[in-house]
Amino acid sequence: MLETQPAARRTFSWRVVAAAMLLCGWGGNQFTPLLLMYRRLGGYSTLDVDAFLGAYVVGLVPGLLLAGPVSDRRGRRPVLVAGTAASALASLVLCFGAQSAWAIYAGRLITGVAVGIAMAVGSSWVKELSAGEDGALPARRASLCQTAGFGLGAGVAGALAQWGPWPMVSPYVVHVLLTAAVPALLLRVPETRAPSPAPAGLLARLADDLRVPAPARRRFWLVVLPMAPWVFGAAGLAYAVMPQLVDTRVGEWGLAYATGLTVLMLGMGVAVQPVAKRLRGRAPVAAMSVMPAGAALCAADAVLLSPWLAAAAAAVLGMGYGIAVVSGLLEIQRMAGADDLAGLTGVYYMLAYTGFLLPALLAGLSAWLSYPIMLAVVAGVALICLAVVATGVRVTART
């Protein structure tokens, strides 16, 4: 039996789930402004620190693709409790493993799993706990919690690393302390999916939960797929690539600058998210119209190395990110049924997070190509994706 609850308790419940999403997002992004710290204090190369981001993406894959379908079948609560506990564990590993690349890889891998669980399961649980409210509201709540967690994690960790004691330890300790009580609170949140007995062919059934329903496949391939990687591709450009390019221009304020750039990008993402609701089906085109401009600013700044131009690029990319993440969630929630909502949400986030591989790809290619050339190519690819999305929105327009 599913648990029922009055409206006031339902509000408390979705807020607890939102807090879990926020803190998992905090754990996922607290590492980003510390990239410069690991280069300066840890002695890691640019390729090393970008590969740490890549390990995070690798961890996201099982978290996103398995946690969603499992929660569709076995219930939201046990899966998200495990994900929130994993987020705290990851911070403990990073706290004690700063001098070991393998420990950092392990910590980032676990972080990825935790964030994947939070995004796929948390987004679905928030939607179900918000039943009866404005149809776009659950998607905005989920994306806002995710973005707020990313921004707060980066802001607090960067400030502690720049001005606080034990820069390679204190950011993670704060996250562990904040997260420790959340799994217990989640145990009080009503379950919205009745656990079902494990049937024969469970893996095949889980795979079915990851399939896009046939009526929506054309729109998925033409609209969601070409837009999704730009969600975190924009983030990777704004707060992984640009701070490292202008590092020599900001001197000892590098950590504070990287933190500010991250918060600026995510803050713009929060500010523009209500726009996605008003744009409705045109939101993907609006999001992709902004991405080439942001990438072009990054390409220009790879030549000029201006901290101010990098900030402008981060702000523009943040606008594209904010519209894209909400509109993508709305598209998926329209496509999915009750039995595959978390599974398809996981597919969407997996596609979105592939964009986080972009900094590592650029760092790997930098031995042969300059950043101005590579970023100009990125802007060109964004224009191609804009054309595909605009065509897809037009040919799949709902009547």
Descriptive report:
This protein is mainly α. It contains 18 helices and no strands. α6 packs antiparallel against α15. The mean pLDDT is 85.
What does this entry show, briefly?
This protein is mainly alpha-helical. It has helices at 7-29, 35-40, 46-74, 76-96, 101-129, 137-163, 170-179, 182-186, 202-209, 217-227, 229-245, 247-250, 254-279, 283-304, 307-335, 341-353, 358-365, 371-395. Helix 6 (137-163) packs antiparallel against helix 7 (170-179).
Task: Provide the β-strand percentage band.
Answer: under 5%
| Number of separate helices | 18
Radius of gyration: 20 Å
Biggest pleated sheet: none
Structural shape:
globular
Spell out the helices and strands N to C: HHHHHHHHHHHHHHHHHH
Low-pLDDT segments = none
Write the topology of this structure.
Layout: H1 7-29, H2 35-40, H3 46-74, H4 76-96, H5 101-129, H6 137-163, H7 170-179, H8 182-186, H9 202-209, H10 217-227, H11 229-245, H12 247-250, H13 254-279, H14 283-304, H15 307-335, H16 341-353, H17 358-365, H18 371-395
Helix pairs in contact: 1-4, 1-5, 1-6, 1-7, 3-4, 3-5, 3-16, 3-17, 4-5, 4-7, 5-6, 5-16, 6-7, 6-13, 6-15, 10-18, 11-13, 11-14, 11-15, 13-15, 14-15, 14-18, 15-16
